[in-house]
Amino acid sequence: MNKAIRSEIFTRLKKHIPEPTTELNYSSPFELLIAVILSAQATDKGVNKATEALFKDAPTPEKMAALKESGLKKYIKTIGLFNTKAKNVIKTCKLLVTEHDSQVPENREALEALPGVGRKTANVILNTAFGHPTIAVDTHIFRVSNRTKIAPGKTVLEVEKKLLKFVPDEFKLDAHHWLILHGRYTCVARKPRCGACVIEDLCEFKDKVID
């Protein structure tokens, strides 16, 4: 796949979704951080249900840390892996208070030092909360990148590096959200909706499903 085709792919995705954004509900970098930590192996819809009450009652690291693990679990018990997530969230809140003046750091190294925060989560925070042109690769983006051949790779990190290399600069800021939404609603895992795809003619997937 050449540069011109990649540029046309993102031009069409932009036209299809002019202002893409995360489907997680949040009103501050802190709330986004917590929502993303909770979203691992869970749906955004499920996370939003749990965080609606949580963020109303504990919108700051201090207030959330005060809940302690037992209190936090009452809010997030409907989310998968809630025991581990509760432990990580409380530890993260305490670190934000003691080491970062209760602010979410705008720094990859500092973000990845927080419990429950890996490279993907750090990329989401840097991109969505702070406007950095990072690209977090989840299962949807990994699938879309390999199927279309936009940025094929055998590992998440390889796909991320290729996306950063191949996605035209003008599209880098929103590339993460375009690709994740495309994978979530069109280029789905079992039966991709190729007939309704705005980039079907540019995609190099061999087993297209045209209804």
Helices and strands, in N-to-C order? HHHHHHHHHH
CATH architecture annotation name of the largest domain:
Orthogonal Bundle
Give the count of structural domains.
2
Counting DSSP E segments of at least 2 residues, the number of strands comes to 0
The separation of the N and C termini measures 25 Å
Give the name of the CATH superfamily of the largest domain: Hypothetical protein, domain 2
Number of contiguous helices: 10
**Main beta sheet strand tally, sense and closure:** none
* Rg, Å, rounded: 18 Å
**Global shape:** elongated
Strand portion, in percent? Answer: under 5%
Helix content: 55-70%
Which blocks of ≥5 consecutive residues have pLDDT under 50?
Answer: none
Name of the CATH first level of the largest domain:
Mainly Alpha
**CATH topology title of the largest domain:** Endonuclease III, domain 1
Structural class: mainly alpha
The averaged pLDDT comes out at 94
How does this structure look, described?
The protein is an all-alpha fold. The protein has two domains: 3-20 and 134-196, Endonuclease Iii, domain 2 (Orthogonal Bundle), CATH 1.10.1670; 29-129, Endonuclease III, domain 1 (Orthogonal Bundle). The chain is built from ten helices and no strands. It has helices at residues 3-16, 29-38, 44-57, 61-76, 82-99, 108-112, 119-129, 139-148, 156-166, 172-185. The longest helix is centred in the middle third of the chain and has 18 residues, at 82-99. 37% of the residues are buried.
